[in-house]
């Protein structure tokens, strides 16, 4: 105190000088009285308080705190909570605490420390990664910076930076681990195998009681323990500290590791945490037990469509364990199917059939009960159906339509009345078989049964994913409104189910984006595509990842970059997984269409030869998209060299395609064929016939709002649409198509004068269409993914441009001018 005030504390010092062994309390009373008369404030700093072990000192500090005058402020630094009345001080709001979370460096502070203070030149990505690895621990960052000096490969070092780094290891072992009492050190080493800690779990792993108290003690001591909930039931170790503990445990007690993992696995299994139990069984090398646990965990993994998790577990198991378990063999076959390794699928299914026969030799399952798992598990009972379903999937993957239908019907025969999951799969493959055959009148209602069965089975992710396929079928029928409605409803359902950031929400956004592309709403298409990409790969299913690249290519092509579009389609081809749905729109044909549009007819002709396409081919739905692409090439070749001959081959092919599409209810194909007939007639100069075919196409599509179906045909179609406008053919619809900005493909505008001379934006046209429905204002806002205030702004602008004052008048005026 003399450093702050020469006369302060002189009385207390006199007592100590006169009687060195004097009681502490009188000395403190004298000091407190001196402080209370002082005219200035003082801060008493006690550093490294954790080093104090004498209870008398703690008692003295407590007395000082209880009777401290306002002039005195006590600052204590300590690695652990001091044994002082902290709770009472908190209740009185007489304490300010700076804990680990407050001292943790933010990313910005980490950047300043590493680059400015330590003289490193790290990128933002490297800084962010190192901040995450150290969790903002200042000493850890300093040790990492020391290690980084002299390293040329900073990203590589940071990626490998762990508790095994020599600076980190030495520091934590010497400064933390070796300073702990034996029982605490033993607890730390034995529980290091756990990603998260609770008292009961640690009791089981260590074989001793009292773990909850130890965890609370470790938290108070700030020994790199992080609470995971407000009730202090679950904790984890700081990542680097955990790695140091594990490395030390493996080095000092290698013989204990398997038994520790086994105990953890048993505890997790007993508490129905099967994935954690499985992880520790694998770490213990107990592969038979791990296989049984994986079988038990399968229903939950399948319901959530955690395909990557399942693939990781299966590949972690030795092959002989998988082959010996019929359930695992079946799902290994599924993994091979999704990876495109079709040749390996049937052998795995045969393994499963042999295992099933052996396990049920006496009519009842004779499974190994050593693990205490249910011998008649859900997946085991469903094996015959599952095998039939996967054989249907294999047939689907290789284009065997008849085989797909046959195996799917066999699966349906094997299904029990409450086997909703198997019924969904069987109905799905029957629907896909009908689709592959081109029978959309059968495919759509058959596949529509998939969603309700998946919902009844609790497989919400698969239920939502099935909407993607059903939407594709509706598009093939020529609809844009119904598939968009289905996908938007699925997005709402995902939000209601609490999986708005999980699979397949990204796919749903991408699907909606594709539909907006076809209706000419490029801004909305970009919004949904960006939303899907932002959700990330984790919110998509593996079989759907290729879709985002197809839509990206579509948008690039519309923006005038065909080269970039083809590159994206090539990426889509690399990501396309066979075996999930019929390949009715081959990506290679999409690329050929871009080439034809750009006049690269020789390259397109090379594609035709490689696909062995001719106008005289026997027709099948799976080649319809390619034959329509061939027709485009024939028309383009004729336009490039008119004296080269007639378009008889093109007309004959189109007529055969039209008859097949009309018979099977493929409205989308009928629409495209009519547009191509119009183009072929136009190319031969037969304008009356061209306008007649165009009128049929326009009348069939105007209710759905097709735009790209016509505008993708380029300048010749624009000229033909102008002729249609002169002839007053579907005037409102044709006017809408002609007022699309070809550079930006923005929304339709109203032609004419007065209100009609003011163009409506793309978003305003979307709002207008929804106003022409029974939806309320809030419901319209939800459909558009905007706030109610934003919707009101759009509505006000629509009213101003159309010179109306209410919703009904806006709809009526829009109908008058062909906007609806």
Task: Give a description of the structure.
42% of the residues are buried. By secondary structure, the chain is an all-alpha fold. Strand 1 (42-46), helix 3 (55-66) and strand 2 form a beta-alpha-beta unit. Helices cover 65% and strands 2% of the residues. It contains 46 helices and four strands. The strands form two sheets. It has a two-stranded parallel ribbon with strand order 1-2. A two-stranded antiparallel sheet has the order 3-4.
Note the gap between the termini.
86 Å
| Biggest sheet overview | 2 strands, parallel
Sheet with most strands: strand arrangement: 1-2
Number of strands: 4
Beta percentage is under 5%
General form? elongated
Class from secondary-structure proportions:
mainly alpha
Short description:
By secondary structure, the chain is mainly α. The chain is built from 46 helices and four strands.
């Amino acid at each position: 105190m003399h450093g702050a005030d020469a006369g302060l504390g002189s009385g207390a010092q006199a007592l100590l000088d006169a009687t060195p062994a004097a009681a502490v309390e009188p000395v403190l009373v004298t000091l407190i009285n001196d402080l209370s008369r002082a005219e200035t404030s003082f801060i008493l700093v006690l550093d490294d308080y954790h080093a104090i072990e004498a209870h008398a000192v703690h008692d003295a500090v407590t007395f000082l705190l209880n009777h401290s005058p306002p002039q005195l402020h006590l600052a204590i630094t300590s690695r652990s909570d001091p044994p002082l009345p902290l709770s009472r001080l908190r209740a009185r709001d007489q304490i300010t605490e700076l804990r680990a979370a407050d001292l943790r460096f933010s990313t910005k502070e980490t950047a300043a420390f590493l680059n400015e203070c330590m003289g490193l030149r790290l990128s933002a990505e490297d800084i962010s990664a190192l901040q995450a690895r150290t969790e903002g621990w200042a000493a850890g960052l300093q040790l990492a910076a020391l290690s980084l000096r002299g390293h040329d490969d900073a990203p590589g070092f940071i990626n490998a930076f762990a508790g095994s780094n020599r600076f980190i290891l030495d520091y934590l072992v010497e400064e933390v681990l070796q300073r702990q009492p034996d029982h605490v050190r033993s607890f730390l080493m034995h529980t290091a195998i756990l990603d998260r800690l609770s008292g009961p779990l640690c009791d089981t792993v260590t074989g001793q009681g009292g773990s909850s108290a130890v965890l609370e003690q470790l938290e108070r001591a700030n020994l790199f323990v992080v609470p995971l909930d407000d009730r202090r039931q679950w904790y984890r170790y700081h990542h680097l500290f955990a790695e140091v503990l594990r490395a030390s445990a493996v080095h000092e007690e290698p013989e204990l590791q398997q038994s520790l993992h086994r105990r953890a696995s048993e505890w997790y299994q007993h508490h129905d945490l099967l994935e954690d139990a499985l992880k520790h069984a694998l770490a213990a090398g107990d592969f038979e037990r791990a296989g049984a646990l994986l079988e038990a965990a399968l229903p939950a993994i399948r319901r959530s469509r955690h395909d990557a998790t399942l693939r990781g577990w299966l590949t972690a198991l030795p092959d002989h364990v998988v082959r010996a378990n019929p359930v695992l063999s079946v799902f290994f076959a599924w993994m091979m199917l999704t990876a495109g390794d079709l040749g390996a699928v049937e052998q795995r299914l045969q393994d499963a059939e042999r295992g099933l026969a052996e396990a049920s030799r006496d009519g009842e399952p004779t499974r190994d009960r050593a693990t205490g798992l249910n011998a008649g598990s859900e997946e085991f009972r469903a094996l015959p159906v599952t095998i039939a379903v996967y054989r249907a999937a294999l047939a689907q993957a290789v284009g065997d339509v008849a085989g797909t239908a046959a195996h799917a019907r066999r699966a349906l025969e094997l299904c029990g009345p409450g086997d909703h999951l198997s019924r969904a799969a069987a109905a799905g493959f029957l629907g896909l078989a009908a689709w592959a055959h081109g029978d959309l009148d059968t495919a759509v209602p058959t596949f529509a049964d998939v969603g309700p069965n998946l919902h009844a089975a609790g497989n919400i992710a698969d239920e939502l994913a099935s909407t993607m396929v059903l939407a594709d079928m509706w598009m093939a029928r020529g609809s844009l409104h119904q598939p968009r409605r289905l996908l938007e409803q699925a997005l709402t359902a995902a939000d209601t189910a609490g999986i708005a950031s999980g699979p397949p929400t990204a796919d749903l956004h991408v699907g909606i984006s594709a539909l907006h592309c076809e209706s000419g709403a490029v801004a909305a298409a970009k919004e949904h595509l960006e939303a899907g990409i932002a959700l990330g790969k984790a919110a998509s299913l593996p079989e759907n990842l290729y879709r985002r690249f197809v839509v990206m290519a579509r948008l690039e092509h519309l923006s005038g970059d065909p080269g970039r579009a083809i590159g994206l389609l090539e990426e889509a081809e690399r990501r396309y997984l066979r075996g999930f749905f019929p390949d009715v729109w081959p990506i290679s044909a999409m690329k050929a269409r871009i080439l034809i549009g750009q006049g690269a007819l020789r390259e397109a002709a090379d594609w035709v030869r490689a696909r062995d396409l001719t106008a005289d081919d026997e027709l099948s739905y799976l080649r319809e998209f390619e034959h329509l692409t061939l027709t485009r090439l024939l028309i383009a070749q004729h336009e490039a060299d008119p004296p080269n001959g007639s378009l008889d081959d093109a007309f004959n092919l189109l007529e055969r395609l039209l008859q097949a599409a009309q018979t099977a209810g493929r409205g989308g194909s009928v629409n495209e064929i009519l547009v191509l007939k119009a183009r072929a007639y136009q190319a031969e100069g037969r304008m009356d016939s061209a306008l007649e075919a165009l009128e049929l196409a326009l009348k069939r599509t105007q209710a759905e709002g097709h735009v790209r179906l016509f505008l993708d045909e380029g300048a010749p179609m624009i000229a033909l649409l102008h002729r249609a406008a002169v002839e007053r053919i579907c005037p409102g619809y044709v006017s809408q198509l002609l007022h699309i900005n070809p550079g930006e493909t923005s929304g339709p505008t109203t032609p004419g004068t007065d209100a009609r001379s003011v163009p409506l934006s793309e978003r305003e046209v979307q709002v207008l269409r929804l106003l022409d429905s029974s939806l309320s204002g809030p419901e319209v806002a939800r459909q558009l993914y905007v706030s109610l205030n934003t919707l009101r702004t759009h509505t006000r602008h629509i009213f101003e441009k159309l010179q109306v004052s209410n919703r009904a008048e806006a709809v009526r005026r829009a109908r008058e001018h062909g906007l609806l």
